[in-house]
Structure formats: structure tokens, C-alpha cells
Amino acid sequence: MANIKSQKKRILTNEKARQRNAAVRSELRTAIRTVGTAVDAADKDAANAAMVAAGRKLDKAVTKGVMHKNAAANRKSAISKKVAAL
């Protein structure tokens, strides 16, 4: 444990940010998985709706600093290709 007061504060805020980022990443994975299950079930309407929701969550993760914008763009591209292939 650090002795410096500001470093103790940073440890606390870093832990809060880590937990928040983990929650956002978990939501992202769930949203992307939902698109995959809709595609596997060949349900075009559900896949489109899930793709829109996942795209929003990806964009939100970028603005929160959880994910790089190019990584999010690659994920969005991949899920849109899957949905377009239906």
C-alpha cells in the first residue's frame, strides 16, 4: 500500500474505474453475443434490432474510454457483415 495520500486516492479511483470498465465490457460482450444468437437462429428482425443496440453500446464504450474507436469500428463491421449475410 502506498504512503502518499494522493496515491491512496488514485488506487481507490482506479479500482472504481476498473469495475465500471469491466461492467461496460461485459455488457458489450452480451450485446454482441445476442447478435450472434439472432444470426444463428436466422431471425433477421431480431438480428437488426440487436445490431443497432450493440452499435450504440460500442459507441458509448468509445466515448467512456473503455475501448478504442478503431476496435469498436471493427466489431461493428463484423456484426453488420453477419447480419447482412442473412
From TrEMBL:
Keywords: Ribonucleoprotein, Ribosomal protein, RNA-binding, rRNA-binding. The keyword Transmembrane does not apply. NCBIfam families: S20. This is Small ribosomal subunit protein bS20. HAMAP family: Ribosomal_bS20. Binds directly to 16S ribosomal RNA. It comes from Paeniglutamicibacter cryotolerans. GO terms for cellular component: cytosol; small ribosomal subunit. InterPro entries: Ribosomal_bS20, Ribosomal_bS20_sf. The gene is rpsT. One of its GO terms (biological process) is translation. Pfam families: Ribosomal_S20p. One of its GO terms (molecular function) is small ribosomal subunit rRNA binding. Belongs to the bacterial ribosomal protein bS20 family.
